[in-house]
Design a protein that fits this description.
Layout (H helix, E strand, L loop, with lengths): L11 E4 L15 H6 L1 H7 L3 E4 L3 E2 L11 E5 L6 H13 L3 E6 L9 H8 L11 E2 L20 E3 L6 E3 L14 H16 L4 E4 L2 H4 L15 H13 L4 E4 L8 H5 L8 E3 L1 H13 L3 H9 L8 E5 L6 E2 L5 H11 L6 E2 L3 E2 L3 H4 L4 H12 L4 E5 L55 H6 L4 H13 L3 H4 L1 E4 L7 E8 L2 E8 L5 E5 L9 E4 L5 E3 L6 E5 L4 E6 L4 H4 L4
Parallel strand pairs: 1-2, 1-16, 2-5, 5-9, 9-10, 10-11, 11-12, 12-16
Antiparallel strand pairs: 3-4, 6-8, 7-8, 13-15, 14-15, 17-18, 18-19, 19-24, 20-23, 21-22, 21-24
Helix pairs in contact: 5-7, 9-10, 9-11, 13-15
The site of 1-deoxynojirimycin has 9 residues, from loops.
């Protein structure tokens, strides 16, 4: 039964079809190309793919501006190619999740075109209008510095329309029951074509009341239950992973007290404090964030990540903390974005320091939740800061040393392939790393295997153990008579720590899952552990014979 909640211990891999693999040689990644790379993904060991938007779109916000929800953008292939791909994924035991972008449409969507030109059109009320420019039009922009307003005048209707994001992304009036019914229809459509769930874009904005008279946010949480209920009737194992960068005190509103709303949420609170911990060597705020986000219904799950396709948002840190992260990982103005974040890839942020990167991934994979990995990070890809805004970290996947990194046969890829410097495809690519047992790629495969061997992380209760050193984080997970204890040293210098793994007869013996070495407690029940700089240790508490003791049903 526990396997039914597949997302509890999934390893999710996020990718954009456009920049993954081009099969037809036109310079743009496509579903046929992606399908050919499924064996690569299966080999890596991931269990679910999250596809960034691929529906028909003018592509002004990398597909987050949809103009037809019921189609594949012709540049990426056809619906037939999509189904071949989901089928191929299923054969390999990989689930497919897709982005669901329903807070807004593209301004080229026929609904908006109808709505703007005819005030009697049923679509008029699908969007959010105002006769006058609302007083708060210069507030609430998501892309400050790039986006000037949240209300723009539409020339055709002569009215102002609301857009939380860019002006070409008019917000849908999600309170309109017809819009809600359409959202369900969209989910139903893609479920039918083989997907196992949705990464729902901008959830707090989807459920917020919208209108010129709204001066403070009011969320309509009931909507989330409607979405989930529909999904569960249509396909019991389908889930929603919410993008909701909200304060911990509202988490339960999103999950639902009875676990009847979102199945998963990204843990932005932990993400920001994790970067602070990496920058400062101080794990206390991270431990606090883990505590603050502890409460969730038994069927719910966090999604943890290091970097994603957007900027690393540091908006929840204090100014001093944020400045420390900027100084460590994105000191140049050019590396920062929207006054709150860093737009770089993970590897260059850490100066390509292998040991530090591995420690950081190991840490992320061992947090209470499900890890979400971004394409290219498994080989340590870099960024191209000459590209605008977030595009710098969205360059094509680097497969080999062939021209254009083997991504395309065309010499005009959709975004430039990184070809200069230490992060150029000549140095960072799958083919080379495939052959090298000590590469980031092969290391990542081993990390994924280790994560799968520790189901306690997804299912169990966790405890952050008391350790005297600020730079060492030790977490213990217990689940059904089994326990793992995972220790990270975030600092460069080696250190010896004493750890009390807590009561239980097994606590006398810790066995390293990776190399089989062990540690025995002293008379006081403490383990004395010597940790190299940036060390990561995954111990099984009480010995390695846990497989025999496992009582899964
Ligand atoms: C959040 C997405 O992650 C981001 O890439 C996008 O620009 C906005 N939502 C608008 O859809």
């Amino acid at each position: 039964m526990i396997n039914d909640l597949w997302y509890k211990n999934a390893v999710v891999y996020c990718l954009s079809v456009e920049t993954f693999m081009d099969a037809n040689g036109d310079g743009i990644g496509d579903f046929q190309g992606l399908a050919r790379r499924l064996d690569y993904l299966a080999g890596l060991g991931i269990t679910a793919i999250w596809l960034m938007p691929f529906q028909t779109s003018p592509g002004k916000d990398d597909g987050y501006d949809v103009s037809d929800y019921y189609n594949v953008d012709p540049r990426y292939g056809t619906l037939g190619d999509f189904v071949e791909f989901t089928h191929g994924a299923k054969q390999r035991g990989i689930r497919v999740m897709i982005d669901l972008v329903v807070n807004h449409t593209s301004d080229e969507h026929p609904w908006f075109q109808e709505a703007r030109k005819d005030e009697n059109s049923p679509y008029r009320d699908w969007y959010v209008w105002s006769k006058e420019k609302p007083e708060n039009a210069s507030q609430g922009m998501v892309f400050p510095g790039v986006q000037k307003t949240t209300w723009s005048r539409d020339k055709v209707s002569g009215k102002y329309y609301f857009h939380r994001f860019y002006d070409f992304q008019p917000d849908l009036n999600t309170a309109n029951p017809h819009v809600q019914a359409e959202i369900l229809k969209i989910m139903g459509f893609w479920i039918q074509l083989g997907v196992s769930g949705f990464r729902m874009d901008a959830v707090p904005f989807v459920i917020a009341r919208k209108g010129a008279d709204i001066d403070k946010p009011v969320e309509q949480y009931d909507m989330l239950r409607t979405f989930r209920e529909f999904l569960q009737w249509r396909q019991g194992d389908a889930i929603i992973l919410a993008e909701a960068n909200v304060l911990p005190k509202t988490d339960m509103n999103y999950f639902g007290e009875d676990g009847d709303r979102m199945h998963m949420m990204f843990n932005f609170q932990v993400n920001q404090t994790l970067f602070y911990a990496l920058a400062s060597g101080d794990c206390a705020p991270l431990a606090k964030a883990l505590e603050a986000t502890r409460t969730r219904p038994p069927t719910a799950q966090w999604g943890h990540f290091l970097r994603n396709h957007d900027e690393l948002d540091l908006g929840r840190l204090s100014e001093a903390q944020r400045n420390m992260v900027f100084a460590a990982f994105g000191p140049d103005k050019d590396m920062q974005l929207y006054d709150r974040g860093i737009r770089r890839r993970f590897s260059p942020m850490l100066g390509g320091n292998r040991d530090r990167m591995r420690m950081a991934y190991s840490l992320m994979f061992s947090l209470p939740g499900t890890p979400v990995l971004r394409y290219g990070d498994e080989i340590g890809m870099g960024e191209d800061l000459s590209l605008p805004e977030r595009n710098c970290a969205r360059t094509p996947m680097q497969w080999s040393t062939e021209p254009q990194a083997g991504f395309t046969k065309s010499d005009a890829p959709v975004l430039p392939v990184i070809s200069d410097g230490a992060y150029g495809f000549q140095h960072i690519n799958v083919a080379d790393q495939r052959r090298n047992p000590d590469s980031m790629l092969n290391w990542m495969e081993r990390l994924i295997r280790m994560r799968k061997e520790a189901p306690e992380i997804g299912w169990g209760d966790f405890r952050v153990l008391d350790v005297e050193e600020d730079g060492v984080l030790a977490i213990r997970y217990d689940w059904r008579n089994n326990a793992v204890l995972i220790v990270h040293n975030l600092n460069e210098s080696p250190i010896e720590v004493r750890i009390d793994p807590g009561p239980g007869e097994g606590s006398q013996l810790l066995v390293d899952i990776a190399d089989g070495s062990d540690s025995r407690a002293d008379e006081a029940g403490l383990h004395r552990l010597y940790l190299e700089g940036y060390a990561y240790k995954w111990f099984r508490v009480g010995g390695l014979d846990y497989l025999l003791r496992r009582t899964e049903i």
